[in-house]
Design brief:
Number of helices: 10
Order of helices and strands: EEHEHEHHEHEEEEEEEHEHEHEHEH
Shape: elongated
Helix content: 25-40%
Radius of gyration: 22 Å
C-alpha cells in the first residue's frame, strides 16, 4: 500500500517541467486517496507553475512551493531530502524530463533508496518499464521507499477537480545552503552556462509541441526528405511509424508508438499513416490531429479532427512548393495508405 506520494516538479521561469501532468496522473493512480499526494514545485517562480498545473486539472492537489532560483540539482536534492514532505514519502515521483532525470538520481542517493527510471506504470508492488530500447515491456518489483521517474508524454487523462481548489503554500524552512558551487554534502553540482532555444529538428520528440508524422504512404525517401523541408518551414518536428524507420527513411529515435517514443504534442499532422494501434497509442492526447490519406476509412482518419482524402506525397510536394524555395517539390509517389 502506498500511503504517501510526493511529486517533485522542476520549474524554469514559471514553466513546469515537461511531463509534470503525466507524473501527477501516475501519482494519483498509484494511491487510493488524493489527500495522500503532495506536489513540490521547485525552481524559479513556482507559483506561476502551480497555476498552470491547476488549470490542467490538478487544482485540488496540495502543492507546496520552493523558490530556489536557477537549476542546481545537487543543492536541490540536498535540501529536498531533509524536507519532511519528501523524506517521509513512500514514493517520490518526478517527470523523466531532462531536469527530472538530473535531479532524481541525486535525490535517491541522499534518501538512500532505489531509483526506478522511465516508468510507464506503477502500483504498490511493481513498476512497468521499457526494455530492449523500448521494443519490449518488463516488470520490476518495488521496494519502498523509492524514487521514480515517470516517462514523459504518457498523456494523462483529463480530469475534473474534486471540491474546492487547494491553496499552494511555501515550503517551510526551505534553504539552499551551498547552492552555488559545491560543498561536502552536495558534491559537484551542475552549472548552467546558457540555455539555447530548442531546435525542432533535433529536440526530444516527447517534448515536441508540433509533430508531422511520416507513414509508408509517402512512398519514397525523396518524399520523406520533402516533408522534412515542410517541417523545417513550419518549425515542426518529424516523427515516423515503425515501418518507415525499419526502411531507414527516418532514424529509429524518431519512431512514435509503443515500441518507440511516446509523445503528446499540441498538434499532430499524419501523412500517409494508416493508424495502427501500436502507433496511435503512443500519440498521447493532441489538441489537434490532421491526417492526409487516400483511405478515408483507415483508423488514423477516424481519430482526426481534420481528415483530408488526398495523395499524401502530392500534398507534401505542394506544401513544400508553397512554404519553401527549395524547388518544385518531391515526386508524388504511389499514394499508398499503409503505415
Amino acid at each position: 500500500m502506498i500511503d504517501a506520494v510526493t511529486v517533485i516538479v522542476p520549474v524554469r521561469d514559471g514553466e513546469p517541467a515537461v511531463g509534470a501532468v503525466d507524473a501527477l496522473g501516475m501519482a494519483l493512480e498509484s494511491t487510493a486517496a488524493i489527500e495522500a499526494v503532495r506536489v513540490v514545485l521547485i525552481g524559479h517562480a513556482p507559483a506561476t507553475a502551480a497555476t498552470t498545473l491547476g488549470d490542467a486539472g490538478f487544482a485540488d492537489v496540495a502543492m507546496v512551493l520552493a523558490e530556489a532560483g536557477g537549476f542546481a540539482p545537487g543543492a536541490w536534492a540536498h535540501a529536498l531530502a531533509t524536507t519532511p514532505t519528501v523524506a517521509d514519502a513512500d514514493m517520490v515521483l518526478l517527470p523523466a524530463s531532462a531536469d527530472g532525470r538530473d535531479l532524481a538520481p541525486r535525490l535517491a542517493a541522499h534518501l538512500q533508496c532505489p531509483l526506478l527510471a522511465g516508468v510507464l506504470g506503477i502500483d504498490a508492488h511493481r513498476a512497468l518499464l521499457p526494455r530492449a530500447s523500448g521494443r519490449a515491456l518488463g516488470e520490476a518489483p518495488i521496494m519502498l521507499p523509492a524514487v521514480v521517474t515517470c516517462q514523459t508524454g504518457m498523456g494523462a487523462a483529463p480530469r475534473e477537480t474534486s471540491g474546492e481548489p487547494v491553496a499552494a503554500e511555501a515550503l517551510a524552512a526551505f534553504s539552499l545552503d551551498g547552492a552555488s558551487g559545491t560543498s561536502a554534502a552536495i558534491g559537484p553540482d551542475a552549472t548552467v552556462l546558457g540555455v539555447d532555444e530548442a531546435d525542432a529538428a533535433t529536440m526530444d520528440l516527447s517534448e515536441a509541441p508540433f509533430i508531422v508524422g511520416v507513414g509508408a504512404g509517402l512512398g519514397s525517401p525523396e518524399a520523406v526528405a520533402a516533408l522534412a523541408d515542410v517541417a523545417d518551414a513550419l518549425d515542426a518536428s518529424v516523427g515516423a511509424t515503425r515501418v518507415v524507420t525499419d526502411e531507414g527513411w527516418v532514424s529509429h529515435d524518431r519512431q512514435i508508438g509503443t515500441t518507440g517514443v511516446v509523445v503528446d504534442p499540441s498538434t499532430y499532422v499524419a501523412f500517409g499513416i494508416s493508424g495502427a494501434v501500436q502507433h496511435t497509442s503512443g500519440l498521447g492526447s493532441p489538441d489537434h490531429v490532421i491526417s492526409v490519406n487516400l483511405d478515408p476509412h483507415c483508423p488514423m482518419m477516424q481519430v482526426s479532427d481534420l481528415a483530408i482524402v488526398a495523395d499524401a506525397p502530392a500534398v507534401v510536394a505542394e506544401l513544400r512548393r508553397r512554404l519553401t524555395d527549395t524547388g518544385t517539390g518531391a515526386p508524388t509517389g504511389a499514394g499508398e495508405e499503409a503505415s
